[in-house]
Structures are given as structure tokens and as C-alpha cells.
Amino acid sequence: MGRDLRRYSRQTTIHLFVGFMVLLLVGGGGLVYLIYGSGALPTYLLCLGAGLAPLLLIGLALLAIQRIADRGG
Q1: Model pLDDT for residues 16-57, shown as the tens digit of each residue
Q2: 32-57 core/surface letters (b: 16 or more CB in 10 A; e: else)
Q3: Please, what sign has the CA dihedral across residues 22, 26, 32, 38?
Q4: Which residues lie closer than 8 Å to 25 by C-beta, 6 or more apart?
Q5: How far, in Å, CA of 3 to CA of 16, rounded?
Q6: Which residues, including other chains, have CB under 8 Å from residue 41's CB and lie 6 or more apart?
Q7: Distance between CA 34 and CA 58 in Å, rounded?
Q8: At 6, is the pLDDT very low, low, confident or very high (cuts 50, 70, 90)?
Q9: CA 8 – CA 29 distance, rounded (Å)
Q10: Alpha carbons 28 and 5: distance in angstroms, whole number
């Protein structure tokens, strides 16, 4: 029974990313709600989406490059 360290690394990275996103959405959204009220939540989500969109696009581009490289061409 061998350990697949690449799979473990991939799972850990995904878990960390999901945890970060939950913390950012729930914690950040909760703080915005407590400090500024419910009217600021749409603005928070808009700014959060605008900030995360480039990161998501870069991540998708890197994933596509990795899949192309794994196929060998």
C-alpha cells in the first residue's frame, strides 16, 4: 500500500482554498454586516467577486496548461 503524495497534496490544497473562501465569505461578510449594516453586503460581494475574478482566471489558465502538458502535447 503506497502513499500517493501528489493526490494528498492536491487534496490539501483544495481543502485550504475552500476553507479560505468560507472564512472570507462568512467572516468578512459577517464583519461588513456588523460594522456597516445589510446595505453594504452587495457592495462587499461585488468587490470580492471583482478581486477574485483575475485569480480564478489565472488558476483556470494554469489548470488548462497542466492538463495539456500531462497529455504530452
Answers
A1: 999 999 999 999 999 999 999 999 999 999 999 999 999 999
A2: beeeeeeeeeeebeeebeeeeeeeee
A3: positive
A4: 48
A5: 20
A6: 29, 32, 33
A7: 33
A8: confident
A9: 31
A10: 33
